[in-house]
Write a structure and sequence with these properties.
The chain is α+β, with helices and mostly antiparallel strands and 68 residues long. The protein has helices spanning 17-35, 61-67, and strands at 3-9, 43-49, 55-56, 59-60. The protein has a single domain (3-66), classed as Macrophage Migration Inhibitory Factor. Keywords: Isomerase.
């Protein structure tokens, strides 16, 4: 049983429900096609992480996006 965990930043740029549904569908199809995994037992979890709780290069995503 494959388990895939996708972590994305939330906030104003968070994916829509439709985008999340498409990610789940496409990741499941990919594992089925490439690794011959059973789609009925494939688990895909999407975690949205607040931008203040995600850091890159010593700065939160919130700060990094303000710099741009």
């Amino acid at each position: 049983m494959p388990y895939v965990n996708i972590k994305l930043t939330g906030g104003s740029e968070a994916p829509t429900a439709a985008q999340k549904a498409e990610l789940i569908q496409e990741v499941t199809a990919l594992l089925s096609r490439v690794l011959n995994k059973n789609p009925e037992t494939t688990v895909v979890v999407i975690d949205e992480v607040d931008m203040d709780n995600w850091g890159i290069g010593g700065k939160t995503v919130t700060v990094r996006r303000k710099i741009k």
